[in-house]
Amino acid sequence: MTPSTAQTTDTVRKTLHLALVGNPNSGKSTVFNQLTGLRQKTGNFPGVTVDVKEGRLRFPSGQEAALTDYPGAYSLYPNSSDEKMAAAVLTNPRDAHYPDAVLYVADVTHLEKHLLLFTQILDLGLPVLLALNMADSAAAQGIKVNPAKLSERFGVPVLLVSGRTGEGMQRLIGELEKLLRASLLTPAERKPFYALTELEKQVAEAVRHNLGVTNPYQALLVAHHNAWLPFLRPADRETLAAIVQTKNFQSLRTQVDETLDRFDRFTPIVQEAVQHPPTFPSTPTDKLDEVLTHRVAGPIIFFGVMLLIFQAIFDWSDYPMSWIEHGFGSLSDWLKAVMPATWFTDLLTDGILAGLSGILVFVPQIALLFLLVTILEEVGYMARVVFMFDKTMRRFGMNGRSVVALISGGACAVPAIMSTRTIGNWQERLITIFVTPFISCSARIPVYLVLIGLAVPAVTVWGIFNAQTLVFGGLYALGVVAAFLSGWVLKKVLRTREPSYLAIELPVYRMPHWKNVWHTVWEKVLAFVLGAGKIILYVSILLWGLSRFGPGNDISNAAVSAKQEAVGQNLNEEETEDLMAQRRLEASYAGQMGRAIEPAIRPLGYDWKIGIALLTSFAAREVFTGTLAVLYQMGSAEGDITARQETKAKATLRATMKKETFRDNGRPVYTMATALSLLVFYALAMQCMSTLAVVSRETGSWKWALWQFLFMSGLAYLGAWAVYQIFS
Amino acid sequence: MQRRYRTVPDLKSHESAQAISFENPVLACKLTSMGVLPGARIEMVRQSPFGNAYYVKVDGVRMALRWEEAASILIEV
Lengths: 728, 77
What we know:
- The complex is a heterodimer.
- Chain A is an alpha/beta fold.
- Chain A contains 33 helices and twelve strands.
- Chain A starts with a helix and ends with a helix.
- Chain B has two helices and six strands.
């Protein structure tokens, strides 16, 4: 099909925008992935702090359109920040993302529950195409559908499709293009689906008169949502509030009445067009749920699944992690060998490459955890977990939906915090965001491993347990306990009268759709690499600067004296290098800062060298091990120190660290008490700039990020102090 | 005094009843948008392991409701 010249010039003028809208569990994302393939990216909409996926859709004519995947919503009367997205954009034709047409996806097997939002969008006067998704399931269940009938009654094109099998996708694309063309030539003229009541008409008319909103339903929605719609100016809000007041417009009651009226209108249409078999077939879902949500078996199975997941993460990610570390190690060695020994080479190898390696080394663990969590979500299991633990979580100020965020926190707090958007109640969401960073993330693991390897003997206790494994497990448990206790405390402190909901659909169990799984995992890993990673990289460069440069000639003087010292001690080349690296770091800005904070950390059992490591790992925890390696003249053997197995380098480092003494009283630094105190500090402290950045973005201000930082650091300081006092 | 109405938590396991109306307008707003409507057939499947939440079927659609939500749905006696 070749478009006529007139149409081409007409449509080239601007990018066409299509909105993909539907209820949660309508299989919308599957349709989105089918339509756009890999041509998609996550974008941020100003005003609503929700990331949405945008993809490009290519029509047979070669024309392209931008397709935006809106978070699932039941209605234009939203209950969570996720759901608000659709209402915020669709009520504002001046929004840059206001769509030219809407692709509405509904689950055809439960069509009678999926059309509320559809009829609301109809009344906004937007061109709509109704895609009846899950045609394959409908056929398997013996459900008979008549799309032509629906099309006739709703006055929009209706297509039967399946996102899973790809059925009907080509036709869908063709129909979408036709719809867009037609709507550009003649705007959709449709009789409203829902007839406004007399009062609603008056309110809509008043809004039109004052704000110039022409579509009556849109005007009505603006009146309903006058308190929060992001595009309204303060003056508009006042006007709208006055209208609502003078007309005695009861928003809540009107919403319910409208919803019921819409259901009353479309239910007969659905009954006419969709024939269900006489009885609901007994499905495997019911049988599975008898066990999986059982009072006793349910929670036991859940903890078993969690144990398996974390076991898998530790076992399987070991190899790719060491490949990444060795790869970057060799690349950096090679660059040092071939490039001239200048500050630029240093910046490249010790700053940028070290930073990149520090980011990418976590990718295998993060990808694996999200792969497993996404599979559980796709299968339908996570909704059951939300159901089972809602009560438990509420006791600690959270919501059943918080479980998903807390589990994800085991990989990385950044994507975990972003997943809290499905929690409707602001207080529950805030508490979840607040406590998620207490869960031990992958960046804490190397720190734990090094310190445990150094401080805890690998002996068997109580007959069967390895003492090192016990301490490791104990640190995870400490994180979980800290998260829940903080939640409990915050619940007492914060007060809100906002309603809180559980109400969640428990979808039918089904095989995961692998395309969706890959897309989700890819997104989360990207969120980590671009969100957390960027900051880690900047910080590693900054840290490189702080530890490479010092006041005046201190650094070069230190290096010269170290060289003389090395000659005196008859050190070989590598030992000399390590000694010089140590002396340089001690004389650098970072070293000076370490000395400056020593009085503050002395009660925790730390000396100024540990102070340097604390400072350098303030922005990202994993920098700790690298700093220690340099401080104890083991810079050239860093890889062996961070390795999980016992290595010669570890033994040497242990011996070196044992000899460390405090400057003032000469007592040894690395006692069991100091090591335990450090471990507790790292388990509880907020040492992640990326998390703080995400928290401030998700909560809309730096206030909560700052509180979180102070709260966690304070708790870490107190905890470490207590541990040191008890064990020393 | 004998209560004149029942709510969803009064249902025994695998007992079902027709929803009549809602007690709480805020929850009604949320529940109706999810398709829990007056006239819907509500079947109690089971309680959550730690209580306070219910696994129900609304016209065959599986759903989890908190006690407050379930108790806001009035059902036929």
